[in-house]
Design goal:
The structure holds 2 protein chains of 2 kinds.
Chain A: E1 4-7, E2 10-14, E3 19-25, E4 31-37, E5 43-48, E6 52-56, E7 59-64, E8 69-74, E9 83-90, E10 98-99, E11 103-108
Parallel strand pairs in A: 2-11
Antiparallel strand pairs in A: 1-3, 3-8, 4-5, 4-9, 6-7, 7-8, 9-10, 9-11
Chain B: E1 4-7, E2 10-13, E3 19-25, E4 31-37, E5 43-49, E6 56-57, E7 64-68, E8 74-78, E9 87-94, E10 101-103, E11 107-111
Parallel strand pairs in B: 2-11
Antiparallel strand pairs in B: 1-3, 3-8, 4-5, 4-9, 5-6, 7-8, 9-10, 9-11
Classes of the chains: A mainly beta, B mainly beta.
C-alpha cells in the first residue's frame, strides 16, 4: 500500500518563529489533507490540497503531486499551534485515508 | 449544528467483554468512517461506509463489526475485547460534494 512519511518527527519553536513540515508519499494520490490534533485530542482539518497552493491566515500548504510531496508552512507561530500535525492521503476519492505518523510541534512562549 | 458526535468519551472494559461505540453526524454526509489511533502513530482506518446501506473493510478490520443504522449513524462493535484494542477511536464523515473528512472528538478505550 501507499506509504506516507512526515518530517521532522519533533519540532520545538520559540513563539514567533516560522516552520516548514514535510509530507512525502510513495504513489500518486488524488486526496491529500493536513490535520492538526490539538493537545485535547481533537482533529481539525487544515487543508484539502491534492495539488497546488492554499493559504489560510498564518498557515499555507503546497503540494507538488508530480514529485509526491506536500509542505505545510506555519508563520509567526503561537503557543496555540502546539500539537500534532498529520498528513493523510488517498488514492481513491475521499475514502481510505492513509495517515503519516505526524509531526509533534511544541511552541514555547 | 453539532457536527460529528461520539459516545462514550471514555470506556474501560475487561478482556472478553463486548461494547458498541456510537457515532452520529448532522451534516447530511453520505460517507462515514471509523479509525483507531495508537500512541505515537497516525490514524488507521478500521471500516468505512460510502453510503447508507453499505460498509467496507479498511486497513485493520479484524475484531470489529460495524452497522450503518441510517444516514446519520454509524456504530462500531467489539464482540470480544482484547488488550490489543486499547486505543483512541475516531469517527469521521464526508459529504458527497467534497473530499474533506470531518472528525468527532474520539472515544478513549482501555481493555484490561
Amino acid at each position: 500500500g501507499i506509504q506516507v512519511e512526515q518530517s521532522p518527527p519533533d519540532l520545538i519553536l520559540q513563539e514567533g518563529a516560522n516552520s516548514t513540515l514535510r509530507c512525502n508519499f510513495s504513489d500518486s494520490v488524488n486526496n491529500l489533507q493536513w490535520f492538526h490534533q490539538n493537545p485535547w485530542g481533537q482533529l481539525i482539518n487544515l487543508f484539502y490540497i491534492p495539488s497546488g497552493t492554499k493559504q489560510n491566515g498564518r498557515l499555507s500548504a503546497t503540494t507538488v503531486a508530480t514529485e509526491r510531496y506536500s509542505l505545510l508552512y506555519i508563520s509567526s507561530s503561537q503557543t496555540t499551534d502546539s500539537g500534532v500535525y498529520f498528513c493523510a492521503v488517498s488514492m481513491e476519492y475521499g475514502n481510505k485515508l492513509v495517515f503519516g505518523a505526524g509531526t509533534i510541534l511544541r511552541v514555547k512562549s | 449544528n453539532a457536527g460529528v458526535t461520539q459516545t462514550p468519551k471514555f470506556q474501560v472494559l475487561k478482556t472478553g467483554q463486548s461494547m458498541t461505540l456510537q457515532c452520529a453526524q448532522d451534516m447530511n454526509h453520505n460517507s462515514m468512517y471509523w479509525y483507531r489511533q495508537d500512541p505515537g502513530m497516525g490514524l488507521r482506518l478500521i471500516y468505512y461506509s460510502a453510503s447508507e446501506g453499505t460498509t467496507d473493510k479498511g486497513e485493520v478490520p479484524n475484531g470489529y463489526n460495524v452497522s450503518r443504522l441510517n444516514k446519520r449513524e454509524f456504530s462500531l462493535r467489539l464482540e470480544s475485547a482484547a488488550p490489543s484494542q486499547t486505543s483512541v477511536y475516531f469517527c469521521a464523515s464526508k459529504s458527497q460534494f467534497t473530499d474533506t473528512q470531518y472528525f468527532g472528538p474520539g472515544t478513549r478505550l482501555t481493555v484490561l
